[in-house]
Amino acid sequence: MKCIELADIDEAISCSDIDNVGGLVQEIGIAYAEDIATWPTLPAPTGQSATLQLAAAGAWNGDIVQNVGAKFIKVKFTDETGAFTITQQGEAGGENYLYQLDISRAKMNATIFGLENALRGRKLVILVKDKNGICYLMGDKLNAAKMVAADASTTGTASTDKNNVPMRFTYVCPRKLVYTGDKDGLFTEKTAPAQTQNPG
After folding, report:
1. At a CB cut-off of 8 Å and minimum separation 6, what does 85 contact?
2. Are 77 and 28 in contact (CB under 8 A)?
3. Residue 40: which residues within 8 A CB-CB, separation 6 or more?
């Protein structure tokens, strides 16, 4: 069975594909995985003989929905210090993709250390956006993202060196995907739906 339908890919799929800017938007979103009520799912054909088009095969299906009282936090990092990579790994029959996010925050202080302490050892979900406007999701229902060891935080040596806090996050996904789901409202606290009163 062909799960994904092959198709020609031109040099430029659309006019906007001519535009290409490297790097990440200077802000990521982070939440605890336990605060997600509904996760997007891996793309899959519907029906016995159906196949996925290429664009559908490269994107998560559905939206992130948070638990009541939860929200994503915004973490700003030093501009042009972030890098996001997706690397194929694994042996034949067990291939998957390692998503890795590296960011750097200028100046060591109690707040950034507190954030690192809060994230250490926790199951996370992270939203990353590149400067082309493409969004990537790190973390899913079965396998969360996590903060891992990065380079050392450092004061630097000379007065012209950057006092710096590097941070690294990883996530293993069975596929290489972008996130096209809803992002509106993820950064405001989720509220319970209003209850309707029965007419008395």
Report:
1. 98, 99, 100
2. yes
3. 60, 61, 62, 63, 64, 137, 140, 179, 181
Residues 123/144, Cβ–Cβ less than 8 Å: yes
Q: What 3-state DSSP class applies to 164?
A: strand
Per-residue pLDDT of the chain (200 residues; tens, 9 = 90+): 678 777 767 776 677 777 889 999 999 999 999 999 999 999 988 876 688 888 889 999 999 999 999 999 999 999 999 999 999 999 998 999 999 999 999 999 999 999 999 999 999 999 999 999 999 999 999 999 999 999 999 999 999 999 999 999 999 999 999 999 999 889 999 888 877 666 65
User: Please, what sign has the CA dihedral across residues 49, 13, 174, 37?
Assistant: negative
d(CA 159, CA 153): 16
Work out the widest C-alpha separation in the chain, in whole angstroms.
75
Between CA 198 and CA 122 the distance in angstroms is: 43
C-alpha span between 22 and 16 (Å, rounded): 15
